[in-house]
Structure prediction request, 110 residues.
Amino acid sequence: MTPIVRRWFNSDGTLNNNTALLVNGLGVDHPAVIRSVAADNGVPLIDLTAKTKSLVESLGAEGSKALYLYNEKRDNTHTSVHGATVYAGIVRDELVAQHLVPAGSVRAAE
Prediction:
């Protein structure tokens, strides 16, 4: 599973920057490395980076604040309880969609 994005917007409303997409100061693209390891080993991958990027960009700079601790601590990296719940739902849905859990073993969203 790749990591979630950081809430770090460009002026055009996208998250296409190293901070948001978890590329470190040495140029290591963490999500790309994880994708490569999964592909090289033939194991399933949940691309949470891509999924959370899409969600955060769709919510925009203002709407996405609720997913992170922005309102409490101006933190654009760590999730709020709400954000953790939303992101866990994405993981649940991917586990089911990729048939990585037995049918009926995961509770539906409430």
Remarks:
- The chain has four helices and no strands.
- The domain at 1-110 is CATH 3.40.50.1110 (Rossmann fold).
- The mean pLDDT is 94.
- The CA atoms of residues 9 and 61 lie 7 Å apart.
